[in-house]
Amino acid sequence: MSRPHVAILGAGPAGAGAAWWLRRSGKADVTLIEREPRVGGQTASFDLAGVRVDHGSHRLHPASPPHILEDIRFLLGDDLLDRPRHGRIRLRGRWLHFPLKPFNLATHLPPSFTVGVGLDALSKVLSLSQRNENETFESILLRGLGKTICRDFYFPYARKLWGLPTSELSPIQARRRVSAGSLAKMIRKVLPLPGGRAPAARKGRFFYPREGFGQITTAIASAAQELRANIRLDTTVDQITLADKVGVGVRSEGATTTINADHIWTTLPVTSLVRMIRPTAPSHVMEASGRIHYRGMVLIYLVLDQDQFTPFDAHYFPEETMPLSRLSEPKNYAARTEPKGRTVLCGEWPCRVGDDVWNAGDDELSRRARDALDRCGLPVRSTVLEVLTKRLPCAYPLYKRDYEQQFRIVDDWVEGLDRILTFGRQGLFAHDNTHHALAMAHAAVECLRDDGSFDRDRWSEHRREFESHVVED
Ligand SMILES: Cc1cc2nc3c(=O)[nH]c(=O)nc-3n(C[C@H](O)[C@H](O)[C@H](O)COP(=O)(O)OP(=O)(O)OC[C@H]3O[C@@H](n4cnc5c(N)ncnc54)[C@H](O)[C@@H]3O)c2cc1C
Q1: Is pTM beyond 0.90 here?
Q2: Does residue 271 lie within any of the structural domains?
């Protein structure tokens, strides 16, 4: 067979990574199709008032698989900075260093909190907390971390992030989203003991590209283009036709055309994919897909007339009285001192598409965010030169209790489609980091055989590995 043509949908890290590795291996011709005028997806960076900013706080974690990190290093060279983490988290009105540090905890934790955690640990040793038949996010974390940490930290944070009572969240949310799911794991994360996922020396550090987090995907896409991947920006995928060759119906500059390919590799939200496929998906698949939801997010950017707001890279807000989940100051991620007299804050505001936050105007959101920052002891005193908001309809997959059954119906149907492969954060409904999305792309390329066929058994093995991915904050 001549070299197959793979149409890759979506140029976030997963799509761009697949395009580069496919071209580098010489296994396929590639067309990479992206709706936006730039690559990067949720990891893209852009300029705002002369400051390079990201779509919310983004860092490359040292837990990245070595082969992925090596390739990113190869592309970015000295532009990949190795930075210390310097964040803060607010607990019962006090600021703690984040990631947590032993001395800082000992001197800053409210004493009542420390006593509460101690009593919870004791009750755990005495096995007073029982395993529950019908596990949920809530029951798993209560058993692993005890009442105090759950009540003051994880539960309010979870309600804010996902907009649901914790008893309504799936146990998978606890396993995949909470990297320190037990007191023992939490202690290992805080103390420099062997056995953590990142070597002790790497704890409390992160990688960050000099030109913003988006530089990773931009560099990957440029490398793919140099190897003759065809990248089509400003091109929206509307329809996927299953026939002899698979066809991708796209809209670009007002014209509708079809791109024919031997394989379609899609990183689009799996719910959009199901709606796009022709012949139409069976009704039970459409219904199941309609019961899967993503959590939305409004990003609010405030351009301030000052050099630096605080020296911290990010502030984390578990408290429910504060509507933002996190506030980052992009300049601090790469230790930039330019431009002078200007910095940007980026607030992450979890919400539901169509709710009052999603629909609110910039001035209203700016006023509410500044009031909330004021109440947290972070008043914005300088002039706000500009306000910008961005809306992410699929910020997080929502792991509602029992979502697994619905997702399995959709996933089984898509997996059964010849020459269609879904992967990436949106494609596998996986609350993943960038390095996970890249690892999926790498695995997909490995599964394409030299004869142009796709090794589904090997892909199933990779899918089982992906289930062990745990999100790093
Ligand atoms: C607030 C926030 C903070 C995060 N922080 C971190 C962090 O610190 N570290 C980390 O490693 N990860 C972080 N992540 C996760 C990271 O952003 C994702 O893992 C990564 O973006 C997933 O890449 P992807 O390619 O799978 O999907 P995406 O980045 O979502 O890319 C999908 C692409 O598909 C395109 N697309 C969608 N529909 C169509 C269509 N119809 N036609 C054409 N194109 C389409 C989109 O425009 C997009 O470019 C964070 C995510 C969020 C939301």
Answers
A1: yes
A2: yes
